């Protein structure tokens, strides 16, 4: 079967080579802040969450005479896009949409190659306006991405998947994301029992285990199935406090574990019940939530835990206090030694992924929104009314929402939390990370 091809296209210096390097897993493309560093088409074999394809890094698209160097670079880009199964059109969310972006979008719309719009450098508030401006290019919602930090790769996978997966016979119908393998990473401090748990789950001694902390160096993916449903288990190296990491190889392992979080849908933070919850566990949990992954906390070695009820309640209270943005996270008890609690862990894993992947119809979302405003009208700071107009879900995995209205950017953080909590409780998102931004019109005379 012929390998599908993805061409990355965009104006100079939007981050195309950085994304190329991340997809191929090697620093094959030269990356520099100066525009126009890439002059030739570079190709590499890429893999994204099990999706294999050939990726082409193109020169920045310039409008120049074909006989000039920029003109020849443009011809190379056009040839790469014509031969691709899908084009990744990359813009810079921080810089916003420039005239050359609009020119490239017109050229792409005139062609036959499907286009996935990617807004790079979208991390943080600085990229939010650019994401909204990108809607005007006519390719729908942009995939919010940080090629440098690896954020948004799950969304990129979902956008590419329909264009790259080859249908086979009766399976030609598009597969829903929730029907694919549950990508679940197991993370935690060294010696919490991660590899022992993986061995117990799959029923074989696949991972080397022992009393010494830090045996696992690499993140290892294992294909498996639970009750007939496909699962991709990712065991990772233990994450210790940065001050305790002196061995260079272990530094690489911790970095690898962080990358495993990027490629997971659901992350299980495994705690040692004989040691309870420590500050490092909360840091790992916060990192997982910041990356937008669904999180489950599991207390391992439950079969040998003392004062079990008090321990469970203490960990529950510490999690709710230390992770206020995700109160009520699933807290489960397991035993890698006996297998107790593993079926519950897998069941909850599939449930939280369903919530993480959920999209609410705009009509239902705004009916809830109107009710939330009636029950608790927004405040009027300085006597000026804030008028929320509507809200839309602009993404899933994690679920992301944008609220539009007059002066909504002046709403206090407490009111934003009120709306996010309502989304969680009343629209079925549970404890998965929910991103919620507020957008006021630029026109100061807008009533």
TrEMBL record:
Chain segments carrying region Disordered: 372-391
Protein's UniProt keywords contain Phosphoprotein: no
Gene name, Swiss-Prot/TrEMBL: der
SMART domains linked: AAA
EngA-type G domain mapped to chain residues: 4-168, 182-357
Signal peptide: none
Protein family per UniProt: Belongs to the TRAFAC class TrmE-Era-EngA-EngB-Septin-like GTPase superfamily. EngA (Der) GTPase family.
PANTHER family in the cross-refs: GTPASE DER (PTHR43834)
Alphabetized Pfam families for the sequence: KH_dom-like (PF14714), MMR_HSR1 (PF01926)
UniProt keyword Transcription present: no
Family annotation (InterPro entries): AAA+_ATPase, G_ENGA, GTP-bd, GTPase_Der, KH_dom-like, KH_dom-like_a/b, P-loop_NTPase, Small_GTP-bd
Assigned keywords, A-Z: GTP-binding, Nucleotide-binding, Repeat, Ribosome biogenesis
Protein name: GTPase Der
Biological role stated in the UniProt entry: GTPase that plays an essential role in the late steps of ribosome biogenesis.
Residues that bind GTP 1: 10-17, 57-61, 120-123
Assembly description: Associates with the 50S ribosomal subunit.
Binding positions for GTP 2 per the UniProt entry: 188-195, 235-239, 300-303
């Amino acid at each position: 079967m012929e390998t599908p091809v993805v061409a990355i296209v965009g104006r100079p210096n939007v981050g195309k080579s950085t994304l190329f390097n991340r997809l191929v897993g090697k620093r094959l493309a030269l990356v520099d802040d100066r525009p126009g560093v890439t002059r030739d088409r570079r190709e590499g074999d890429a893999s994204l969450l099990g999706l294999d394809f050939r990726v082409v890094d193109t020169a920045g698209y310039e409008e120049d005479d074909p006989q000039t160097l920029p003109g020849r670079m443009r011809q190379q880009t056009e040839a790469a896009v014509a031969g691709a199964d899908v084009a990744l059109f990359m813009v810079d969310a921080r810089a916003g949409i420039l005239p050359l972006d609009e020119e490239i979008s017109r050229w792409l719309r005139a062609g036959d190659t499907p286009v996935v719009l990617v807004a790079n450098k979208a991390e943080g508030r600085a990229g939010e306006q650019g994401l909204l401006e990108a809607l005007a290019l006519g390719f729908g919602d942009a995939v919010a991405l940080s090629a440098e930090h690896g954020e948004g790769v799950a969304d990129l996978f979902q956008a590419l998947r329909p264009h790259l997966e080859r249908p086979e016979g009766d399976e030609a119908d598009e597969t829903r994301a929730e029907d694919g393998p549950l990508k679940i990473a197991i993370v935690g401090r060294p010696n919490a029992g991660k590899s022992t748990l993986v061995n117990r789950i799959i029923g074989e001694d696949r991972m080397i285990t022992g009393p010494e902390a830090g045996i696992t160096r690499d993140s290892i993916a294992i294909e498996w199935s639970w009750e007939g449903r496909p699962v991709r288990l990712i065991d990772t190296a233990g994450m210790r406090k940065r001050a305790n990491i002196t061995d260079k190889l272990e530094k690489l392992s911790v970095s690898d574990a962080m990358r495993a979080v990027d490629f997971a849908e659901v992350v299980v933070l495994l705690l040692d019940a004989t040691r309870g919850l420590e500050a490092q566990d909360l840091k790992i949990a916060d990192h997982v939530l910041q990356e937008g992954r669904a999180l489950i906390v599991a207390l391992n070695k439950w079969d040998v835990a003392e004062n079990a009820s008090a321990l469970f309640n203490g960990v529950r209270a510490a999690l709710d206090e230390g992770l206020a943005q995700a109160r009520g996270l699933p807290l489960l008890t397991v035993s890698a030694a006996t297998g107790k609690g593993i079926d519950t862990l897998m069941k909850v894993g599939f449930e939280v992924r369903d919530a993480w992947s959920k999209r609410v119809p705009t009509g239902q979302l705004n009916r809830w929104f109107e009710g939330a405003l009636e029950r608790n009208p927004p405040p009027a700071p300085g006597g000026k009314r804030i008028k929320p107009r509507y809200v839309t879900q602009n993404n899933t995995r994690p679920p992301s929402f944008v609220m539009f209205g007059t002066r909504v950017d002046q709403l206090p953080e407490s009111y934003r939390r009120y709306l996010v909590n309502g989304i969680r409780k009343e629209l079925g998102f549970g404890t998965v990370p929910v991103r919620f931004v507020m957008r006021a019109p630029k026109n100061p005379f807008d009533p």
